[in-house]
Amino acid sequence: MFDQIMARIAVRFGRVEARASARAYLLGLLSKAERKNCWQLAEQAGHARPGPMQRLLRYARWDADAVRDDLRAYAVEHLGTDGGVLIVDETGFVKKGRASAGVQRQYTGTAGRIENSQVGVFLAYATSRGRALVDRQLYLPESSWCTDPGRRQAAGIPDEIEFATKPRLAWEMIAAALDAGVEAPWVTGDEAYGQDPQLRARLEEAGTGYVMAVACSTRVRINSGLTPVRADTAAGRLPVTAWQRWSAGSGAKGPRHYDWAWIHIGTDEHRHLLVRRNRTTDELAFCLCWSPTTATLAELVRVAGVRWSAEECFQAAKGQVGLDHYQVRHWTSWHRHITLAMLALAFLTAVAASAAPNRPADSHHPTRGNDPITLTVPEIRHLLATVFPAPALTAARLLHWSTWRRRHQATARRSHYRRRGTNEPAG
């Protein structure tokens, strides 16, 4: 299967050196290397220096968007089935300094607070067979980047890249997936995307259903009423009989059961407010829903529950294939590393799906007797270390890389001290 995925993307690399580096890079991402940056991937591949890996991300001639298209098609080919869902979500990459493309102090859910970071907007594809990240866009803040030509040029941001809100980036990725023939009747996302009326309108124009989280203060019209009411007010008026208990999918401790209710809103027959109530705390959460055809409450609950798949993808991508291990600043380099990491994760997910084609993809599904659970992404990556062993590490090569790292660190330290000395005020 690895040879097949390499054959699929080989045409994207014009030179044999770049193809070889891409193969080594992917194998490094799948390896047990502690960190998945160019230095450790080069050492893992048996290279004498990180140059080939660095050239792959920065200077080699290949189109990361074309590889992204191959990745998306690969994911659909191996995971596609009825009821597919596209999920829009974002994740942060905490960084130091101000030179990395798109970096600034901004809120990121990764840290749970405002940090100096980059934010990537991602599109995930989820079915009963598995889930994978299939597209990505680096968010470019308007005030600190879009209006600073010098900073843009230093980070390699193309002139045609203009400011776009995160929901706009999400729509561009959704539209590209639909245009490519991805069969996904549903889209879901959190409040950052559900609160955007333009994104919801574009989905309706495309005939794609959605279950999008919104705030409790969102106002909706009930029974064609002239005066809209807050979502939490509408939920408070529901009778006890309106609530039904459904599972929103399985979590680490088994099925996630909540109480659910839905309220018909507006004049559209297929438009609803979906309300989720926590069985322990009574905390409420809300989603605006629309579908081109009649949908059941069970179907809306299923789609709402799939939204957590994006977080699972981020955890797997960062923990297993080094999505956030990069040490690059350039716009092109960021998209190239992220794309290759997404491809590595899609490969692991496809292997897991093919290993259990007739069993639920949910690893928490009950098993019989002593039957093991289905193969997971971490377990498959662990097994691949035997299939793709790293080149023998001799004492001479180990010392060579130790010397290389320490020389680089000494150069970086001198540069840092020189910069600090230049900025110190005269005594």
From TrEMBL:
Q: Which residues form the Transposase IS701-like DDE domain?
A: 13-239
InterPro entries assigned: IS701-like, IS701-like_DDE_dom, RNaseH-like_sf
Entry-linked NCBIfam families: transpos_IS701
State the name under which the record lists this protein. IS701 family transposase
Lineage, please?
Bacteria, Bacillati, Actinomycetota, Actinomycetes, Kitasatosporales
